[in-house]
TrEMBL record:
The chain crosses the membrane at residues 6-23, 57-82, 88-108. The keyword Membrane applies. This is DUF6249 domain-containing protein. It comes from Kordia aestuariivivens. InterPro entries: DUF6249. Residues 10-110 form the DUF6249 domain. Keywords: Membrane, Transmembrane, Transmembrane helix.
Amino acid sequence: MGSEVIIMPAMLGVVFGIYYLYISSRNKERLALIEKGADASIFFSTKKSLTPTWKVLVLNVAVLMMGIGLGIFIGNMMHVSFGLPEEVAYPGTIFLVGGISLFTGFFLTKKLVEKA
């Protein structure tokens, strides 16, 4: 009974700790560079992204959803045709084809960014 109460605060503590370490280390690094006399403009990117973020997000979500749908379809075919247990066929193919679709989405996004 006690472990259920501890899990959520522990997870939130881990997320907060990682965020705190990221912010504090970034701040220390910037202060060290400023003390050495480096120009503050190195912290700001002058290059703007030519491809809008929403296009990249929509492309990756669309490819992932198609992959999940294909994974469900292939999982059903494996369950019906080969007699593979449902507990193995569906999650296995969904994760496999979903991962392949994310990998494909990465390359499509890379091609989209290079084209713009």
